[in-house]
Specification:
This protein has five helices and 18 strands. By secondary structure, the protein is of the alpha+beta class.
Length: about 240
């Protein structure tokens, strides 16, 4: 079978633009393949949600579409079909390499860089789905549900094991922790994900949120920070 270059493919309709994130200190962009998220990766957040603390042997994963990102923050539209939009600040890991069944001892070799993001959640839809034992994709994977900062390359900053992760809304501190408090560290998250999916270059991994999640209203301004690494600022419109 003859394989055409991508530029010459006879698509029935024009292909969508590739979602991408800016890279600190570079004109290049980081193209997004998939967005993986881990739930309940901070014990205090699991407790505030009334959920059991996830064991290291049974992590909870879900996905967002790649085009859910809002690159670099800025204006983030309040989503439809909800009256309860919640913020969840998280360290974000970007992969330069992937694979299956990756050993945790080699997992950090896959990492391109780090950033900070918000896993925005339609909490009322999530609660209703949970109560009926139904999937809650619509609560997590909606348009503009993943604002993410510019990335900092691991070749520049290394692989942070400790760093303050915080979120302020209208100047008020809402969430504040150290990434050292994650139940599964980055290497273990990547290893566990690779047992379920073949990870690829361009994948993003949201690494879980600490306690303090809460509502966002139209007009709210947010300031998320992974200390010394990344800052994300924006406004809910």
């Amino acid at each position: 079978m003859r394989v055409l270059p991508a530029s010459a493919m006879p698509y029935a309709i024009p292909p969508a633009a590739i979602p991408a994130l800016p890279i600190h200190g570079s004109d290049a962009l980081f193209p997004i393949h998939r967005i993986y998220c881990i739930g309940r990766n901070y014990a205090e957040h699991a407790k505030e949600m009334g959920a059991p603390v996830v064991s290291r042997a049974q992590p909870v994963f879900f996905l967002k579409p790649a085009d859910a990102i809002v690159p670099g923050g800025g204006e983030v539209p309040y989503p439809c079909a909800t009256q309860e939009l919640h913020h969840e600040v998280e360290m974000v890991v970007a992969l330069a390499h992937g694979g299956r069944d990756i050993d945790a001892s080699h997992a950090l070799d896959c990492v391109f860089g780090y950033g900070v993001g918000l896993d925005l959640t339609r909490r009322d839809l999530q609660a209703a789905a949970k109560a009926k034992g139904l999937p809650w994709d619509a609560a997590k994977g909606f348009d503009a549900s993943a604002p993410v900062s510019a990335l900092r390359a691991a070749s520049e900053i290394g692989h942070p094991a400790r760093a303050s992760l915080s979120l302020r809304v209208n100047g008020e501190l809402r969430q504040d922790t150290d990434i050292a408090d994650m139940i599964l560290p980055v290497a273990d998250i990547i290893a566990e994900l690779s047992k379920l999916f073949e990870l690829k270059a361009g994948d993003l991994v949201f690494t879980g949120t600490p306690a303090g999640v809460g509502p966002l209203q139209r007009g709210d301004r947010f300031h998320a920070q992974l200390q010394g690494i990344a800052v994300l600022e924006g406004r809910i419109t």
